[in-house]
Write a structure and sequence with these properties.
Order of helices and strands of chain B: HHHHHHHHHH
Distance between the termini of chain A: 118 Å
Oligomer: heterodimer
Low-confidence stretches of chain A: none
Number of helices of chain B: 10
Shape of chain B: elongated
Number of helices of chain A: 4
Mean pLDDT of chain A: 80
Shape of chain A: elongated
Structural class of chain A: mainly alpha
Largest interface: A-B, 29 and 45 residues
Mean pLDDT of chain B: 83
Helix content of chain B: 55-70%
Radius of gyration of chain A: 44 Å
Number of strands of chain A: 0
CATH architecture of the largest domain in chain B: Orthogonal Bundle
Radius of gyration of chain B: 18 Å
Distance between the termini of chain B: 48 Å
Number of domains of chain B: 2
Largest sheet of chain A: none
Number of strands of chain B: 0
CATH class of the largest domain in chain B: Mainly Alpha
């Protein structure tokens, strides 16, 4: 590094190195480009089909989600109805016979 | 790349999908690209990397803004593929600690021995191949491929000063590997 003549010698030698020659393989590259193009064109051709499939799947998912939600609602509604029916029956029974209520019966027995 | 820039008009035609233009571009620019890459990796790997670089170039040609920049752009694609290969081997970033430029001042090799060794192309190529990858990239692109430092910096995506430093340290390494060290008088 300190002596420029060394650097010149090395740099000159590096620059003068003959290039390495490799085999030109255009047919191989053309085949690779063709394969890529085939894949791309196949993808492009099937793009509309893929779009339809995606739309159908979206609709199916939406319907499924809606039905699940509705199912949950009906379960809640039916359990609510069951509770109301039971309460009403209980109240009617108690009106006719106060001792029909097991709590009232227990209280009556416990009282002196 | 080609000595002249005759290939520039083919870039725009290739971008429009003209395969014949791309073939011309390939035939004009491949030899220099291959020579550079074959100094960075094994010849068989260089063949594969060059082919893959052209496939990528074909696919991304629409991203290239300036036709005249094709050669440098293609270099960058190829260098990135080389780096991927090195990354797979996990030695790309290995830099020896003793590569301080100052250390080379005292280790000046014998000039006549260096001149003799440098004339031996095979020995010189071997020494270049044995350089640490980051030095090798800079040395190959600048000296063997003949690219200016600014262009090398663009391709390697590093500042110009980093390229100059790598060249200096690369030269130091080459000198040390090409010649026996001269004894330094205290």
């Amino acid at each position: 590094m300190s002596d420029p003549s060394h650097e010149d010698t090395l740099e000159r030698a590096l620059r003068a190195l003959p290039p390495l020659a490799g085999e030109d393989d255009w047919p191989d590259l053309k085949r690779r480009l063709g394969a890529r193009r085939t894949f791309r064109s196949r993808l492009r051709r099937s793009r509309s089909t893929l779009r339809w499939v995606a739309a159908c799947l979206t609709v199916l998912l939406a319907v499924g989600a809606w039905q699940t939600l509705q199912g949950r609602r009906s379960v809640v509604a039916s359990s609510g109805l069951e509770l109301r029916t039971w309460t009403r029956a209980h109240q009617e029974a108690v009106q006719h016979d106060p001792l029909a209520d097991p709590w009232a019966e227990a209280l009556a027995e416990a009282s002196p | 790349m080609a000595a002249t820039s005759d290939w520039i008009p083919w870039v725009s035609r290739a971008r429009e999908g003209d395969e014949d233009a791309f073939e011309r571009l390939y035939r004009a620019t491949r030899p220099r690209l291959y020579s550079a890459i074959a100094h960075l990796v094994d010849p068989d790997e260089a063949v594969e990397i060059v082919q893959r670089a052209f496939v990528k170039a074909w696919e991304r040609l629409s991203d290239l803004e300036e036709d005249a920049a094709f050669a440098g752009w293609l270099r960058r694609i190829a260098i990135n593929l080389v780096r991927d290969l090195w990354r797979g081997r996990r030695f790309h970033d290995e830099l020896p600690e003793d590569d301080e430029p100052g250390a080379l001042v005292e280790d000046a090799p014998d000039p006549s021995a260096l001149a003799e060794a440098a004339q031996d192309a095979h020995r010189l190529r071997t020494a270049v191949r044995e350089l640490p990858p980051t030095f090798r990239e800079a040395v190959v692109l600048h000296y063997l491929d003949g690219l200016p430092v600014e262009e090398v910096a663009r391709i390697l995506d590093v500042p110009k000063g980093t390229v100059l430093s790598r060249l200096s340290r690369g030269r130091g390494r080459l000198k040390r590997s090409l010649t026996p060290l001269r004894e330094v008088n205290p």
